[in-house]
Design brief:
The chain is mostly helical. It has four helices and no strands. α1 runs antiparallel to α2.
Length: 81
């Protein structure tokens, strides 16, 4: 059984897919999207960019970033007392 991706990885995949969707609808080529909008912010190579675009279809990956309860959820309950 493989490891589940971390929250920072999930956030990066979600952000990159959101950026890609925004500019792909305008008809901008993939390489141009990577060169102008992805590489300056995330500093990833073009191959990694393509791997992240298909990442949500991999098994074991969930797009929900808030999958686990937080420690701060328990603090909220104790403040009510």
């Amino acid at each position: 059984m493989g490891r589940k991706p971390g929250k920072s990885y999930q956030k990066r995949v979600t952000d990159i897919n959101r950026i890609y969707d925004r500019y792909a609808k305008r008809g901008i080529p993939n390489r141009e999207i990577w060169r102008r909008y992805i590489y300056p912010v995330y500093g990833i190579c073009e191959r990694t960019f393509y791997n992240l675009l298909k990442a949500p279809t991999k098994p074991g990956f969930t797009e929900s970033v808030h999958e686990y309860p937080s420690l701060f959820d328990m603090l909220k309950d104790s403040d009510d007392e």
